[in-house]
Amino acid sequence: MKRVYVNEKWCLGCRLCEYNCAFANTGERNMALALRNLEISPRIRIEEGSDICFAVSCRHCEEPLCVKGCITGALSIEDGIIMVDEDKCVSCYTCILSCPYGAVSPSEHGAVQKCELCVKNRSGAPACVAGCPNGAIVYEER
Amino acid sequence: MLKENLNGKEGQIRIPSGCAIAGLFSRSGKSVSGETIVNAMTVMHDRSNGLGGGFAGYGIYPQYKDLYALHVFYNNVSAKEECEKYIDKAFEVINLSRIPIRKTPRITDEPLIWRYFVAPHHNKLMDSQLDEDEYVVRAVIRINTSFDGSYVFSSGKNMGSFKAVGFPEDVGTFYRLDEYEGYCWTGHGRYPTNTPGWWGGAHPFSMLDYSIVHNGEISSYDANRRFIEMYGYKCTLLTDTEVITYIVDFLTRKQALTLTEVADIIAAPFWSTIESKPPKERERLTYLRNAFSSLLITGPFSILLGFSGGMMALNDRLKLRSMVVAEKGDMVYAASEEAAIRMMEPELDRIWSPMGGEPVIVTLEGGAEQCR
Amino acid sequence: MPVDFMYPEYEIARNDSRCIRCRVCERQCANEVHSYEESGNFMLSDESKCVNCHRCVSLCPTRALKIVKSDHCFKENANWNQAAIKEIYKQSGSGGVLLSSMGNPERYPVYWDKMLINASQVTNPSIDPLREPMETKVFLGKKPERIERGPDGSLRNNLTPQLELAMPVMFSAMSYGSISYNAHESLARASRELGIFYNTGEGGLHEDFYQYGENTIVQVASGRFGVHREYLEAGAAIEIKMGQGAKPGIGGHLPGEKIVGDISKTRMIPEGSDAISPAPHHDIYSIEDLRQLVFSLKEATQYKKPVIVKVAAVHNIAAIASGIARSGADIIAIDGFRGGTGAAPTRIRDNVGIPIELALASVDARLRDEGIRNNVSLVAGGSIRNSADVVKAIALGADAVYIATGALLALGCHLCRSCQSGKCNWGIATQRPELVKRLNPDMGFRRLVNLLTAWNHEIKELMGGMGINSIEALKGNRLMLRGTGLNENELGILGISHAGE
Ligand code: SF4
Ligand code: SF4
Ligand code: SF4
Ligand code: SF4
Fold first, then answer.
1. Are residues A103 and A130 in the same domain?
2. Which of B46, B317, B339, C162 could form a disulfide with C141 if both were Cys (CB 3.0 to 4.6 A apart)?
3. Using 50, 70 and 90 to split pLDDT, how confident is the model at B237?
4. How would you class C378 by CB atoms within 10 Å of its CB: exposed for 0-12, middle for 13-18, buried for 19 or more?
């Protein structure tokens, strides 16, 4: 299965991935309209240390702790992708606590949000990868 | 009309032209009348436009076979006197005469056309420290570049070129080629794309016993010309034939390469073909292509190269010009069109189209007189 | 002093209705032009520091940025133009030599743009490169004067060492130090992929790149930095750098700040010390000395590698080249006055040397006149900008060309001409790790390969149009060129006719 992989050696910490992620998931057509005056809450986050930085997003684990822990069945595996069913989520945040990568976060509308590889939005394929200027995140089969 | 009244024509600008060529060769050295080649050219009338035709015959001067036969165009009597003084100084003239012609209304404005059978002056030759051939080449280049109104258009032994402005069949009649016999003949009809007013510009182009008739327009011309001029040649006519002749002379006479090797240089196989050869052959072909890279000829050409005791037919590597070759008994024929060959010999043993870049080389049985 | 105040040359035009305060521009500008003002939630810019490199512009996700030339002006003066006035202020303030980088940007004629290429019509067929083989392979090196045969009559391979190029373009010298590790890696990998060569410049060869030796030209310059036996043996050819088009007649200076870590190791000089290459080679004060260096290098490498001599195009270049062609060198590289540099005194860059087109044409003609063109191959450099320039250079007589600025552009360089600052925002002319990182060689090498692959296609198209199916038939084929708007003298030097003739 194709996944998003990180080449931390080439990550510049520019954070374009965060903004591209946020934009892709707004469903808007124009980034300026979508994100102006908005505090973004992207599903990919840049972790920065002294001289290293890299993007973190859902790994789409083969044995996902979040899915195991979900009390309502809001999280499920579809074709290898871990998906959220917003209608079923009761915002208990068990998954947020159980994900070892911190890849699940609360969303503005109550339910949790996480990277779904852009399959549900217009982008169709990870927008973070498409917009990364330095090949620091890639979407590929390994 | 000769050089000084060209008014910006031949020799000052490059004139592309299309053409017809034909050749015949007797491996046994049998004498064939010049009429045969003239007839072959007649059927390809449409491939020429009356602005140049010519022939070369080998074995035609058996009585003077060890002497250089200089064929010279003169503009007028004073040019002739001037040039003859030089010829007398450089050579021993054994025989001289006008080249016999037959007047025809279709060939006009002819210059004075003379023939000299000569040998280099022994002492002059010694002083020059050149070999005989090189001595003759330099004398010919000297006349053609610095004697206004004089032009040597043939300079080999036991061979001769005959050319004029006109259709080839008329040129044949004009020079009375039916009265000559040789073991090899080549012919040429020219279709230049503007009006060369000059007889010297017709083909064959010859240098010593090499003569070339050529159909095509080579795109590598200036690359070839600027390279070959480094070696003492002067391309005064700006024609493809001239530069090809010099290239052949340089490679065979000065570099002592064989004709097959010459073909591997001027119509070199593609690198992809070379890659597919066995290692030794690959190295040989790569060497030739690299060492003589500036002599690769590109663009369409089909040429017939005549030399003492042999003839080579060669096409460009893409075969962008037509050429057929045929055999009958000891005879070998080549021409732009099969019709011309059938004219010379209706019943053939074999007829084929050689591949681009693949030379057909024929020599007299028992070897060429000068096997190079 | 208030006289020194200069209004910034560029202004940052930020379209506030588009700006989403992502601060990407702030993070990406090493010149610290952009900043975020928390209290008012807006972006500030200090345009006085901007060098117009377009890094921020290229990365701004909403296209909210552009850099515009300031319309602040001096009183119109065709003689004392803005640049002339500002340079006086700068120098009277600093007392120093003005420094610049990249190639001469002034308005001298670009002869490439005054030459047009021929195509076949009717009398001669053009050739379709998609259907017929079209060859661009060249060999560089001396050609034998005569052939030799073995006892069995077969040809003996008496060629001296040659460089085989899949296409007639190479990357010219840029040292590790003047450009980054990642830039070098991109060039090296692209050369291997393309079957061509890149050039170490005078900074030595990083040990990681010995693996690309077969596609490497190692340079020996007047400072001899990084030169040792394994280095000479590592490359496919050795280049003696006598001069550089951007700064003929002067040496090089890589400031101590750039001599860090691996660079100091590769150059074999202590960290932090300035790397100063003298103006001349102090063992070459004349042509016979050059001959000795050529042969000592050949001796040191058992006559297995061709030696290139690189010179800047200066007034009497034809005579100089003729001397080099007799010095035992196998290849002459001529660098025109528009050639780039990591740093050069502005006055020299902008006023010394001659155009490569004229230099190349006169060198090729001179070597032919003297019958020694076959002694050497000619490589022309100094602002070859596209495939048409390549074709024109070859038709004038070059065997191949060198490109450098074009290659850097492919890697992201935006010609802001501030390489000397060491703060290249594109990760090319810098050694700061956070900036070097911006050039991912996986992407850089691919872009170089793309560029030259595209050029090679175009070269083939142009050749096909001329009815030429092999590059060697184009070399020196000046009949394929015509001039426009050139005077008799220029046409004479270029050895071409005017269009319409
Ligand atoms: S866009 Fe790419 S380079 Fe920029 S922070 Fe994200 S992963 Fe790193
Ligand atoms: S959210 Fe976390 S635990 Fe769940 S699949 Fe993604 S990385 Fe694995
Ligand atoms: S220096 Fe470059 S990155 Fe910085 S503001 Fe100017 S153009 Fe943008
Ligand atoms: S990169 Fe563009 S959108 Fe982001 S802060 Fe800068 S100007 Fe605004």
1. no
2. C162
3. confident
4. buried
Does domain C138-472 sit in CATH 3.20.20.70?
Answer: yes
Residue B206 or residue C123, greater confidence:
B206
- Cα separation of B214 and B19, whole Å? 7
- Rounded distance between C-alpha atoms, residue C220 and residue C227, angstroms: 7
pLDDT at B121: 93
**What is the least distance, in Å, from the CA of C170 to any CA of chain A?**
26
Spatial distance between the Cα atoms of A82 and A61, rounded to a whole number of angstroms: 8
Element (H or E) spanning C436, and its range? helix C433-436
Shared-domain flag, residues A78 and A103: yes
Contact B248, B265 (CB under 8 A): no
CA proximity to C404, closest of C364, C356, C363 = C356
**Backbone dihedral region for residue C427 (phi beyond 0: left; psi -120 to 50: alpha; all else: beta):** left
Check if B19 is active-site. yes
CB contacts of C129 in chain B (<8 Å) are none
**What range defines the domain where residue A16 resides?**
1-57+119-142
Complex prediction ipTM: 0.91
Are C430 and C423 contacting, i.e. CB atoms less than 8 angstroms apart? yes
pLDDT exceeds cutoff 90 at A81:
yes
Are residues A52 and A1 located together in one domain of the fold?
yes
Regarding the beta carbon of A132 and ligand 1, being less than 6 Å apart is answered yes
Amino acid at C293: L
Burial class (CB in 10 A: 0-12, 13-18, 19+), C122: exposed
A6 and A49 fall within a common domain: yes
Please tell me the total number of residues recorded for chain A in this structure: 142
Cα separation, C267 vs C205, in Å, equals 8
Number of neighbours of residue C469 by Cβ within 10 angstroms: 26
| Beta carbons of C155 and B297 less than 8 Å apart | no
Q: If you average pLDDT over residues B188-196, what whole number do you get?
A: 70
Provide the edge-to-edge strand list for the sheet that holds B331-335: B159-164, B53-58, B184-192, B17-26, B331-335, B324-328, B350-352
* Interval B279-301 mean pLDDT: 95
Is residue A102 classed as helix, strand or coil in its secondary structure?
A: coil
CB atoms within 10 A of CB A63: 7
Report the nearest-CA residue for atom 6 of ligand 4.
C25
CA A34 – CA A55 distance, rounded (Å)? 22
Maximal C-alpha separation, chain C:
91
The two tokens of residue C21 are 């305060």
Under the banding of pLDDT at 50, 70 and 90, the label for residue B11 is: low
Residues of chain C with pLDDT under 70: 1
Domains located in chain B, CATH noted: 3-363 (3.60.20.10)
Supply the CATH number for residue A39's domain: 3.30.70
Dist CA A47 CA A52 (whole Å): 8
Question: What is the domain count for chain A?
Answer: 2
pLDDT of B8 reads: 38
Ligand 4 and C60: CB distance under 6 A = yes
Query: Backbone phi, then psi, for B22, in 5-degree steps?
Result: -155, 155
Domain containing residue A69: CATH number: 3.30.70.20
pLDDT at B15 over 70: no
Are A16 and A29 found together in one domain? Answer: yes
Task: Please indicate, yes or no, whether residues A71 and A93 belong to a single structural domain of this protein.
Answer: yes
The chains found to touch C (3+ Cβ pairs under 8 angstroms) are A, B
Q: For helices C317-325 and C287-300, what crossing angle results, to 10°? A: 40
Using one digit for the tens of pLDDT, what is the confidence trace for A2-57? 999 999 999 999 999 999 999 999 989 999 999 998 899 999 999 998 889 999 99
- pTM comes to 0.91
Structure tokens at B98: 């006008």
Q: Domain locations in chain C?
A: 10-96, 138-472
- CATH 3.30.70.20, applies to C10-96: yes
Q: How far is the CA of C70 from the centre of ligand 3 (A)?
A: 15
